[in-house]
Task: structure prediction
Amino acid sequence: MKHTNNETWEDVRLPELQIHWLWKKLINWVSRVNYIYWVILTVILLALAFVLIPDSVLNRFWALIKAQKVLVSLILIFCITALSLIWKKGQSIDVYVFMFLNRRGNRPKWIDQAMLGATQLGHGFFAIAMAAAFYFWVDHLLSYELILGTLTLWLVVELVKILIRRKRPYSKLSDIRIVGDRARGHSFPSGHTSQAFFLATMLYQHFNPGIIGALILYAIAVLVGITRIYVGMHYPRDVIAGSVLGSAWGLLGTIINSYIRY
Result:
């Protein structure tokens, strides 16, 4: 299966969302700032936070991490997925699955709109909006945990992208569909997917909704992962890595939560 880098892909442009001018101006300003400045700012803020945390708290925190075998296993799976990128046959499989989910079958406009809307559930702004709602109506502490988890997860995702530097599908493949705008940056891992699985894990651990609730939360997270391929922004292994990383980050947040609350 050979793909050339030429301008034959299909851009599906959907009507622009109606956003208040103030929020739109803020979003445009954020999008113009280079990623590296956000990474530097986040590193500085996290460094200040760690300086203020007592050593006794950090020591207990690391002890709790060592006791989490599931967390360690997820980290290992993520590392194996990253290493698998050098496997040429794996790239062929990636492309085949990507093309199947991105192009196969009839794609009416309403499905494009629904998938583009669903993919926003993995956006950082959605997590911040959810955290704000929790702050006012549910639990202040959970709100802080979601914001801190979202910021640190974003930092980890961006650092991994900088290290691995995998090109997005639209820069390597021809005849693909791009629904909405083209995301900036690199492809591995999927940030939207990692955010969705982080939220699913944190919410499940906090509210303990049972099997049905868990199925709903993780079904939404899986849907976000599928949409990232559908809209043409990620390969399947980007999504798999994002789901593993997000789940691991959610478990990490649960460890911190258990220490703070109990």
About this structure: The longest strand covers residues 10-12. Residues 236-261 form the longest helix (26 residues). Strands lie at 10-12, 177-179. DSSP finds eleven helices and two strands in the chain.
